[in-house]
Each structure stands twice: as structure tokens, then as C-alpha cells.
Design goal:
This protein is mainly alpha-helical. About 70% of the residues lie in helices and about 0% in strands. The chain contains 16 helices and no strands. Helix 5 packs antiparallel against helix 6.
Length: about 300
């Protein structure tokens, strides 16, 4: 197995696959999982979900938690096999019982929405908590929402806030957006704090959240929580619109009515510079940021 692993890390995928096939056919669970991963993601081989399923299953049948989780995800999403939520839950449970945090969180989600199992919010909370206690941000965020809504557990806003911060501090974008709104709107149990709202929206926007980008656009356009800045407002609306936000697309035209030609050009270049600094965000763009009509 180690020889294949060295080849894999040196991106000699052909040799890695050859070595791992020998090991996998002798029952090596790590090799079986790795081959499944290569076929699932098209690494060194044409992407083949049926082949990935075959190798994941061999590893999962030996109790390998990562393979069990991936097999569950394939059943849930219908990848290489017809969708089957019940079968997905079965594999998630096997991995979750071994302490695999992603499986625990996903099993919690299945119970929360009643997919593949009877809806049971108390059971959802149980599985979210197991993953959250291991520090898994997604589960901390999901558990925070359960506490905030009083679903499956007594409502506890203080605990919801604590868990939201734990998840957001790990960089979980959805938790950062949630904190941004909570600080922006304010509640008795969550004092309004414009500076913190802007900070969390900025962190989420820098990760590519169109929701946060749109909200920042409004904040800079109206001078809420931050000084008014039409150029920055246009940039954030432009980036959000590029991801398909209809509201941001409409706001672009409202902002540009108050801008000079020079300001529009600067805002456009800022959009392009942001994309240059965040190349991964291009995968989320539906359209390229708009070039002001005056400069076309």
C-alpha cells in the first residue's frame, strides 16, 4: 500500500492504481477505499461512479468508516446507484457508531428532516451533539439552530449563541452568516452590535457567500454598520449578482445611479481583483461581474 501512496502523492496515479489494485484484491481496506475515491473524483482515471461504489462497498463491508460514509452519500444522492435514503441511513449509522463525525452530523440531518427514517428531532439532536462535542463545526451550527428554535430540545438562546460562535470561529460560512444577521438585528438575548455584524458578514463574503456579499452591499450602500461607500457596495452587489442573486442584480442599477463613470470603473476593477485573489470563487459564478455600460 505504501508504494502506491508514494506514487499518489507524486501524482503518478497510474502506478498508484496498479499498486493499489494488487493490495485491494488481497483485501486491503485502505487500498479499496483509495481506489473508490479515485474513481469517484476522476483522479488519474475517468470518473466512474459505479466503479467507485464497488470499491467503497468492499471497504465498507470491512467496517471502514470513511467508506461507509461515502457509500451512504452515494445512496442519498443517487450516484452510481438509484437514490435510496433508507440505505443511506444504514451506512451513515454504521459510520456514526464508530465516531465518524461527518456521518454523525449527516445522520442528525436525516432524522431532522425525516429522510430514510421517521422524523425524530430528539434523535437528530443526539447525533448533532456527538459530532459537535468532537469539534465538528457543521454539527455545532446545526445544533445551535436546534437550540435556537427549540426543536428536539428545550430552547436555549445562550447555548445557541455559544455553539454558533464555535462553528463560525472554525470558518464555517453558514455560521458566520447567521452570526452576522443575529448581531445586525439584535435580540434581548443577543445584543445588537453593528461592528460585529459587519465583521462576520465580511468573513463569510470573503469565502464566497452571496448572501453575505449582498448584505454587505446594502450596508455600504446605506451606510449601515459601516461608512457609506458606493464603490464597495457596487463591488459586493456585483459579486453576489454573479452568483445568481436577483436582489443584488437589481441593486446594481440603484447604486450606479449615484455613481460617476470613474467610480463605476473602479468598482468593476475591484470585482475582478477580488476574483483574482479568490480563484476558487469562480466555480460559483453564474455570470462574470458586469462591466459598466459606459466602458463597453
Amino acid at each position: 500500500f505504501d508504494k502506491g501512496l508514494r506514487s499518489y502523492y507524486y501524482e503518478d496515479f497510474e502506478t498508484a492504481l496498479t499498486e493499489w489494485l494488487i493490495d485491494a484484491n488481497q483485501g486491503n481496506v485502505l487500498a479499496q477505499y483509495r481506489i473508490g475515491y479515485m474513481y469517484a473524483n476522476g483522479i488519474g482515471v475517468p470518473k466512474n461512479e459505479e466503479e467507485a461504489l464497488k470499491w467503497y462497498r468492499l471497504a465498507a463491508d470491512q467496517g471502514y468508516a470513511s467508506a461507509q460514509f461515502n457509500l451512504g452519500a452515494m445512496y442519498e444522492n443517487g450516484l452510481g446507484v438509484p437514490k435510496n435514503a433508507t440505505e443511506a441511513v444504514r451506512w451513515y449509522r454504521l459510520a456514526a457508531q464508530q465516531g465518524y463525525v461527518k456521518a454523525q452530523d449527516q445522520l442528525g440531518k436525516m432524522y431532522a428532516i425525516g429522510s430514510g427514517v421517521t422524523k425524530n428531532e430528539e434523535e437528530a439532536v443526539k447525533w448533532y451533539r456527538r459530532a459537535a462535542d468532537q469539534g465538528y463545526g457543521e454539527a455545532q451550527h446545526n445544533l445551535a439552530r436546534m437550540y435556537g428554535a427549540g426543536r428536539g430540545i428545550s430552547q436555549d438562546y445562550v447555548e445557541a449563541r455559544r455553539l454558533s460562535h464555535l462553528a463560525a470561529d472554525q470558518g464555517l460560512m453558514s455560521a458566520q452568516v447567521l452570526l452576522g444577521y443575529m448581531y445586525a438585528n439584535g435580540k434581548e438575548w443577543f445584543p445588537k452590535n453593528p461592528e460585529k455584524a459587519a465583521r462576520w458578514f465580511h468573513l463569510a463574503a470573503e469565502q464566497g457567500s452571496s448572501t453575505a456579499q449582498n448584505r454587505l452591499g446594502f450596508m455600504y450602500f446605506r451606510g449601515e454598520e459601516v461608512p457609506e461607500n458606493l464603490i464597495t457596495a457596487y463591488m459586493w452587489f456585483n459579486l453576489a449578482a454573479g452568483q445568481g442573486s436577483g436582489e443584488a442584480s437589481e441593486m446594481i442599477y440603484a447604486v450606479r445611479k449615484r455613481m460617476t463613470t470613474e467610480q463605476l470603473a473602479e468598482a468593476h476593477w475591484l470585482s475582478l481583483e477580488w476574483l483574482e485573489e479568490h480563484p476558487e470563487a469562480r466555480y460559483f459564478m453564474w455570470t462574470w461581474p458586469k462591466w459598466p455600460e459606459e466602458h463597453r
